[in-house]
Amino acid sequence: MKKVCFLLAGICLLSMSSLKAQDVLGAAKKAAAISNTLGNPGGIANNIMGSLTPTLGLNNTQQPKVLDMVSGFLKKKSEIMPLQQTNPTAYTSKFSGLQGGLFSKLKGILTAAQYAKFLGLKPKASDATNVLSQLFF
User: Fold this and answer.
1) Cβ contact 114:66 at 8 Å
2) CB-based contacts of 105: which residues, under 8 Å, 6+ apart?
3) What is the pLDDT of residue 127?
4) According to DSSP H, which parts of 37-61 are helical?
5) Cβ atoms within 10 A of the Cβ of 83, count?
6) How many Å apart are CA 104 and CA 57, to the nearest integer?
7) pTM, whole model, 2 decimals?
8) Residue 135: band (very low, low, confident or very high) from pLDDT cuts 50, 70, 90
């Protein structure tokens, strides 16, 4: 009887640790998928739009304009990404300029309320699982 109880307890522990490992693996895969899309600015731009459109209530006129701006920003960002490792100061400077240009253009397309809501979407820190981090970090 004791052997059966120990066996069942062992099986439960193994299955719980297996589920935990699957959760961690799933989160890692999601983060890797988002990170890998940096080589595909159009793909990540569509993911960003999938988040921004319903959250900001973008209308049919705004959507293609915002998509073009975000796609252009991500393309330029992908060009300066190597600097993040080799010359962080230059990366930060160039990224600030790109981001300022994007935000200025967005301010002209979005309503004041939408723009304020957009700024409120900024994550507290860069997060590979949050696609909007690509616009802020």
Assistant:
1) no
2) 69
3) 87
4) 41-56
5) 16
6) 19
7) 0.67
8) very high
